[in-house]
Amino acid sequence: MKPKWIPYLIIVAIVIFALTAIADRAYGQALIEDEWEDALIEHRANPPREHPIYLPPQLSRGMGNNVEQWRLLVTTYFGPDLVPTALCLISYESGGNPDAKNPTSSARGLFQLLGSLWAPYFGVTLDQLYDPGTNVRLARQVYELQGWGAWTPYQRGLCR
Predict the structure, then answer these.
(1) I need a labelling partner for 130 at 20 to 30 A (CA). Which of 74, 81, 94, 98 fits?
(2) Which pLDDT value is given to residue 55?
(3) Which of these, 71, 78, 143, lies nearest to 113 by C-alpha position?
(4) Which fold has domain 57-155?
């Protein structure tokens, strides 16, 4: 004959196991969030040095449909080997218009960087994403973090 307390012991063991699993998951999520927060704090404390490039006035704003005008700026941040892919992405993302804004998301600028994600991460304002130099510089950093797969045209095989 089984003691009457064994089913209760089994239930207690199951509850303890479930609570342990939940606590482990929450702790793991907290670690991930802490890593992101630490990376953001480090980035803000030691931001990457902006490259001292100045765009001539004729290349500064509102000149969409001409991606080639951004070649020098893109080469400055991406280097010659990555320029063709970067210019292809600019072509698909904004058509070369630094004032481009996606009507259904927070994407802005030449590379259509998601403002809701990258502006807080890099410590810039949404309006700063329209600046060609800032947009290309941050696009390079996004590339370093996620590769070309961060952009949909590349994922679709359009810029390979």
Answers:
(1) 81
(2) 45
(3) 143
(4) Lysozyme (1.10.530)
Domain ranges, ordered by start, for the chain: 1-46, 57-155
The 3-state secondary structure of the chain reads CCCCCHHHHHHHHHHHHHHHHHHHHHHHHHHHHHHHHHHHHHHHHCCCCCCCCCCCHHHCCCCCCCHHHHHHHHHHHHCCCCHHHHHHHHHHHCCCCCCCECCCCCEECCCCEEHHHHHHHHCCCCHHHHCHHHHHHHHHHHHHHHCHHHCHHHHCCCCC
Task: Compute the distance between CA of residue 117 and CA of residue 65 in angstroms, rounded to an integer.
Answer: 26
109 contacts 89 by C-beta, under 8 angstroms: no
Catalytic residue, chosen from 42, 50, 93, 144, is 93
**CA angle 115–120–121, rounded 5-degree value:** 105
Instruction: Supply the pLDDT for residue 39.
Output: 59
Active site residue 37: no
pTM, entire model? 0.62
Does residue 49 register a pLDDT over 70?
Answer: no
Distance, in Å, from the CA atom of 139 to the CA atom of 155, rounded to the nearest integer, reads: 16
State the number of CA atoms in the 13 A half-sphere of 102 facing the CB. 16
Residues 6+ apart with CB under 8 A from 93: 100, 107, 110, 111, 112, 151, 153
